[in-house]
Amino acid sequence: MDAAYVCGSRRLTRATDELGAEHAFSGYVFLEEKMGCGIGFCKGCPVRLRNGGGYKLVCTEGPIFSTREVELSGPIFPPQEVGIW
Amino acid sequence: MSAGLKTAVGSLRLKNPVMPASGTYDWFGRDQAQVSAGQLGAVVTKSVTLEPQKGAPPTRVAETPLGMLNAIGIPSVGLDTFMNDVLPKYRELATAVIVSVQAYSPEECETMAARLDEEPRVDALELNLSCPNLEHGIITAQSPELSAEMVAAARRATQLPIVAKLSPNVTSIVEIARAVEESGANALCLINTLKGMAINVETRQALLGNLSGGLSGPAIKPVALYMVWECYEEVDIPIIGAGGVSTVQDAIEFLLAGARAIQVGTATFREPRALEQVVSGLRDYLSAERIESVSELVGWCHGERNVVGS
Q1: Does A34 sit within 8 Å of B57, measured CB to CB?
Q2: Which residue of B has its CA nearest to A60?
Q3: What residues of B are labeled active site?
Q4: I need a labelling partner for B39 at 20 to 30 A (CA). Which of B172, B202, B256, B263 fits?
Q5: Selection from A34, A20, A74, A46 nearest residue B53 by Cα
Q6: Which residues of A touch B35 (CB under 8 A)?
Q7: Which among A33, A41, A81 has the least Cβ separation from residue B24?
């Protein structure tokens, strides 16, 4: 197996990522996000990157991302993270 | 007839009164731009901050009846990268370039204005005094004193026209407008978004990552229109109207209320050619109404012409 593709569930995405790391295959996740324009103008559809790497836009830099790249924690972000930008 | 569309916002001369609202159009994105910048009166950049910042956590946008909420939080590459990598690209655009500046203190504002003053391709600065989505929750444009300090700081650093973009989230916008006029602003941009929120009933949490956001789109047009009308009565500096302009009729309403130029923002997300459509619609309107210059429309709806019930 060379790669696995996943969409819909964060839990399944995390599992794919963990299995990929264990068995040396690539994981890709197909993400969605509410969008304003859909063409990169409004910066309205960010996906959080791991290790404080900021954000990428789902519309123009996705919608398919490596599971290694994106933050896979729950969809509700804790309030204390609101202030970091 | 395109000579008839010429307008001026103070010393800033524009080939027509139409420009994008800051943060809503990008001529240098991945896809080819739908509207050539040369057709527009000006282009306005996404707000730039002195230091790089990442922007707000998701979710950043939400749909509302007749509009949308956003809490983008101004992701910015920072002024150095902006001046080295982004701004040079604007040199190729055949129109006026207005740089939107987001400063967090008068000192920062002065520093940024001084740096931008060195770039010959910048035709004006728009001071974003009114972003509703910033960390500390304070909107500069809610305080006449702080707004005046920001404008005065930029004024010390540059002779470029300064446009103060104000917030509708105030008791009296005229008070803020007067304060920035007295401290050296050359024009007003009215209005930024109205603060609002949305809640997801499934998670029972605020829908936006920032909790609150800014409401834009047709829903806020009447609010914006009245603020333009009110400020036209009370201050002397020219006004750029913004807030829910989607069609040429909206644009004309703002001109009649007293705006010398208008910005189109949210409408672009629904129709990427909205800017172009407003320009051609204005041209058609002048022609059909046999009006020689768009400036004849500016402020029509004031004084003796404003006959109640007419």
Answers
A1: no
A2: B30
A3: 131
A4: B256
A5: A46
A6: none
A7: A41
Cα separation of B155 and B64, whole Å?
Answer: 38
What per-residue confidence (pLDDT) applies to B309?
61
Measure the CA–CA gap between B217 and B219, rounded to whole angstroms: 5
Residue boundaries of the structural domains of chain A? 3-73
Interface pTM (ipTM) of the complex?
0.88
The range of the structural domain enclosing residue B23 comes to 2-56+73-195+217-300
The DSSP secondary-structure symbol of A61 reads H
Within 13 A of B156's CA, how many CA atoms are on the CB side? 12
Helix/strand/coil for A44? coil
**Chain A residue with Cα closest to B272:** A37
Check CB contact under 8 Å for B57 and A77: yes
Check which CATH number belongs to the domain holding B190 and give it. 3.20.20.70
Query: Does A83 reach chain B within 8 Å, measured CB to CB?
Result: yes
Yes or no, beta carbons of A34 and B59 under 8 Å apart? yes
Tally of structural domains, chain B: 1
Dihedral of CA atoms B222, B223, B224, B225 in degrees, nearest 10, equals: 40
pTM reported for the whole predicted model: 0.92
> Which of B267, B238, B265, B262 lies closest to B251, judged by CA?
B262
What rounded mean pLDDT belongs to chain A? 85
pLDDT of B149 over the 60 cut: yes
Joined together, the tokens standing for residue B234 give 């009370």
For residue A63, cis peptide bond before it (omega within 30 degrees of 0): yes
